[in-house]
Amino acid sequence: MTDVLAVGGRRRLASGGQIDRSQPLRFEWDGESLYGFRGDTLASALLANGIDVVGHGIYTGRPRGIVAAGADEPNAFVQVLSGPAPEPMVQATRIELFDGLRAAPLAGIGRLTAADDRGRFDKRYVHTDVLVVGGGPAGLAAALAAAEMNARVMLVEDDHEVGGSLLGVVETIDGEPALDWVGAAADALERAPEVRVLTRTTALGLYDHGYAVLAERRTPHPDERGRGAVEGRLWHVRARQIVLATGAHERPIVFSGNDRPGVMLAGAAVAYATRFAVGPGERAVVFTTHDGGHEAAAALVSAGIEVTEVVDARAGDVVVATEGDPGLTGVTVARLDDDRRVHGPTREVACDLLAVTGGWSPVTQLWTHTRGTVRWSEDVGAFVPDRPNGPHHAAGAANGTFGVEEGLREGAATGARAAHLAGFGDGSARVMPSPAADRAATSKASGRLLWHVPPIDGDWSQHFVDLQRDAGLDEIIRAADAGLRSVEHVKRYTTIGTAVDQGKTSGLVSAAIAAFLTDQSVATSGLTTARPPYVPASVALLAGRDRGDLHDPTRLTSIHAQHVALGAVMEDAGQWKRPRYFPHPGESMDDAVLRECAAARTTVAVMDASTLGKIDVQGPDAGEFLDRIYTNRFSNLRVGACRYGVMCRTDGMVFDDGVTSRLSDDRFHMTTTTGNAAAVLDWLEEWLQTEWPHLRVRCTSVTEQWAVVAVVGPRSRDVLGMLAPDLDVTASAFPFMTWRDAVVAGIPARVFRISFSGELAYEINVGTSQGPAIWDAVLEAGRPYGITPYGLEAMHVLRAEKGYPIVGQETDGTVTPQDLGMDWIVSKAKPFLGSRSHRRSDTSRTDRRQLVGLLPLDPDALIPEGAQLVDNEDDAIPIPMVGYVTSSYRSAALGRTFALALVKGGRQRIGDVVHAPQEDRTIPATITSSVLFDPENTRRDGVPA
Amino acid sequence: MLLIACPWCGPRDEVEFRYGGQAHVAYPADPEAATDEEWAGYLFLRDNPKGSWAERWVHTAGCRRWFNAVRDTVTHEISETYPAGRAPSGHAAGGQPAPSQQPA
Questions:
Q1: Contact of B67 with B57, CB cutoff 8 Å
Q2: Amino acid A440: pLDDT
């Protein structure tokens, strides 16, 4: 490896290109060690090393080569093996070569890794006046013009350097080589204080009101990377104005054997030859429909590649077949008449490169992301931007304006206009670059529209349209024969355009052929809808730092450390972490829950209830307000008393429940379910602001200001009494459903005598910071009684034994208080939110699902929650469903399993047997009242020891 | 992502807001007096125009105030935002009560 040229690959041209021949880079392709140069892409380095085949058709298995040089590449999707995590499905044309890169081909489908992705990604949220997408001549001119007006400008370029179509060309701008102009433009932008240029950055999507999301890849070269650099960055940009200078994609022509390695887009062939100094072939044929093909031929020749023939469709010559295995060795040329029929004489032309150009399509994907419209341009032979939806402007080739001079002028004018609309300058560009005007302005426009060439032998099976989906023109014929006319239907029927490349080369071609086959005009049948992302984005990039512990905020109560120390198994309750149960060593969950429940029913148990939603409702009209919110009345609640309440949505369905206490005439302490705390506050504020602004009420969340310890069980009074010697805890002095301020364990506290288990119970509220102290004090005071910490699971069992529903478990937004058997709490004497709905015909039905209890005939059989219930499992299918199970547990108090269920007309069916069919058996159960334990409420004042 | 001008906080990203459906659909003064049809109209029936209409938003992650916006449902252009309880300053921008709730 002494010869630097040999190092760069056998197809490396002797001179030219924007590569640094002094920096050879070693890389590995499919296990083989190869070399390229700094400035290469993986695609150019593969071509330089003579690697023609980079993959195979996913269905046909036919070998496939590199077709394009940018984001439009349909074949060279590779698996990147090096780096922090293997990355599947990356275009070799967009992978910058670096030392140590390892990659391999893949057959249509990438492989995800099971290992953790160690790559680090982050996000930036920025504002700018003018965002310019695309760093070609039009984009550079636009950015310069906007920067001239002192607007804040962002210029983003997908490639690792700006220049776009000027990279590798020989023309001049302002009398200097084009690349010098590019360099000067980049320098000027770099110096401008309010300009940010991001290379290796792709606009994934445009959204409403000037929003754009960009994906930035960090440089792969170690010498350019700072310490601790991230792999990539997602930019969220809010721009006042957006200039789309996204260029154009070259279109292939569909003919038999057009997928053979060696068939390449002409512009790509030129880019490889001139920018990367790689000969994609040694003997080329150019197949064109317009003048651009001749320019491409000239560029190839000047790069030292032999061009044996330019097959020009305008002269009636077309390529009808290709030969070679696997790489191209020759093409067959025939005549195409004006009626689109091919005929002889045919002739064979030997070549190993067929450079094809069927015209250029402006890149309008971003333009249409926000439903900007496009229109067919006969001049361009493609769709061009029409009406924007948003502060969007297209310039240069993206606007159907081809040619360097025109692109520069339009770019500068558009940049100035965008700056003006953003509030900078008068709208006219001060400096207008002047390229040598020796290049035909319309060179990239299509001369003759030719989408496909019929086969000379009648065989349509090798006319490939979407190379990545491995789908051909015969698929479009089948779609047309099946009667499909809409391009959207054809897309889904044929899969053409649905692959990772989203039809960048195949979309318009497919739409035009489908229109042709169905006697429509592509001008009116149109294009399929483009949606973000413009190029694939990794989930790791989208996630950024929002992974692991940072994925979602975690809310911990002040007593969390105590639970962990006690060995609690934690459970997610919304964003809260709550103890599920506290297992003793070797104990199963079932055993632990039975033990915890037994403690609450026989002696005393303790739970951290801090997560309960708490809202401070204040104001002279607070009572009236709560009367409207709750189904029952609160305005007549005495100070010092508590009341259970249910609130409904206006449709009459249960929304939330909880105990609310009156602290003073104009102040209530409302509690909500843990999961609904924020939604209830939103609900209260909505009504106060939008319908009842005259009510003098303010609501404040105090959930996080209070730590709550529930002390539950027949011995709870003894525990509280010990801790609060100054508090009279006798049943007459501190009755059920009242609250008292007291000093508990030396800590100022508010104690509520409420119960979610049916047992004598107290909920001790203290300032959040005192949570651990009160928890420890309660555990210590309860030690003589065997006080037992319990978790959510036991809490659920205890309340279910009493038939207390849990909002979101027994209810699902279709359940009324009456369905739950709570008519007693629904006031008939006052209106409330939802009251009118309880008189609707639907809510008055007698066959509504009602909450009942279920006792399986086998007292050891546990019906899975969610199980559907039927009357008779032998009924004809479909068997009518009579209801479903909402909660199901083993009960220590009942000595058996039980369940709660919503059953049609259930309260009229007490004693009936229903069946819960399971995969392997059916569980029969008897319908009972939903209250299975202590229906007379004899225990809430305590039971003698 | 929409850019929504909260009448109190100024232009903010859509993620700070929660949507509240059609604006100017008043809660009936006396729901109990409403016929089934009128009540169902309030509960379930809303306009769904193609074009400009008035809708409710609340600045959940900001000032927590409810307000109204006139938005074009095709282009998403927001031509006006204004506090709850006021009428849009522009021409009749949709958002009329559903026919069933209009006073007879």
A1: yes
A2: 44
